[in-house]
């Protein structure tokens, strides 16, 4: 019988596979439900109307803070962040996490990009808004960093899940606030982006491990 030997640390720690699969399934359900709720929607409705007085955004100095966060989700900023995280992963010999950094971000961006024209929700008349790609990207990168830290620190399941979900939530809330503050998205767009990353990144990590183990 051939023995399967893992030649590199897993991108998705074994202890987190089941809990992240469950959270990913829940996130997918929320993502789909919000998409249906706001299908072809435009303007402040429902929860968004209760949270926001308008979609005009905030004034300086908070606007400048929001722009700093927003830059991380723009093409140049995102490439810089992905490159930095991938480099760190390579330096600490986490090759699978290097691959996950690239593929996880691409998968998350693909999900949000595909959903926008399908849902067709708009803001300011004609800008497709659901789900928020910036929020999804920030959450995805936080998840990848958290998975790396979990492996490096050798955390147990409970502590690892707290770290993974905690970092993802902090990043998602920060970028989501920035996008809403700039008038680029509704709050539920940000929630949708958070859920997209929570569904896409663990699934991509599992796939990376699956393929790497077979190779």
Structure characterization notes:
This protein is an all-alpha fold and 215 residues long. 73% of the residues lie in helices and 2% in strands. It is built from 8 helices and 2 strands. The protein has helices at residues 14-37, 46-51, 62-71, 75-91, 95-119, 133-153, 157-181, 187-214, and strands at 122-123, 127-128. Strands 1-2 form a two-stranded antiparallel ribbon. β1 (122-123) and β2 form a beta hairpin. The model is unreliable at 1-5 (pLDDT under 50).
Q: Which structural class best describes the helix and strand composition?
A: mainly alpha
The string of secondary-structure elements, in order, is HHHHHEEHHH
Query: Which strand order do you get reading across the main beta sheet?
Result: 1-2
Instruction: Please tell me how large the radius of gyration is.
Output: 18 Å
Name the shape in a single word: globular
Biggest β-sheet: count, sense, barrel?
Answer: 2 strands, antiparallel
Euclidean distance between termini CA atoms: 17 Å
Please, what is the oligomeric state?
single chain
Q: Name the beta content range.
A: under 5%
